[in-house]
What does this fold into?
Amino acid sequence: MKSCKPNAIHTLRSFLLFLLSALCILISSSGIAQSPISEYLDDGEFYEKKNILKVNASSLIIGNLPILYERAVSPFISVEAGAGIILPWYVNELSQLFIHEPIITKPTGGYSFSGELRFFPFTEAPEEFYMGLLYRHRDYKQDDQRIIFTDIVMNTGRQVPVGEVLMLEYGWGIGFRFIAAPDIVTEAMDEFDSFQLVISANLKLGFKF
It folds into this structure.
């Protein structure tokens, strides 16, 4: 499989960073986070829309493209599940900024999937402030080897309706990562930490229905 040229990867990554920054500026300038929720609701119509289809902009930055689906299963609980592909680049996550030599450098493919149980203590799901327990699996291919990240993360965040059909989500989480590399010999794996702290930031855009 032919990999992307470094210049093309750098250009695409720069575009994604610009897009994410522009979205953050737009959110701040419009005051969505501080505005009353009633401004974005149409006579309570949102409460009838219990499904959200999302993309995770922050995952794109680190080289993962997941499609996520969330559904409210009770007045205060929702479930989110997703699957995606690994893109041909990797950017260190917040918790890995101080790691001298990360195990993932130039991935050539792979896949991911995740599941999260969410609790909405103050409003009906899937709207506004939530707390969640996330399980996430990422299977990387690199130099004909498999490297597997398994994360268990406690998340908190907010889902804000924007208009009648859009949903904006932002939040952060902290948890643990387990790293496995079935194709790497034990002596080589000793150079890497198989257990790491995870700190994540999330920015998602969704379509509710």
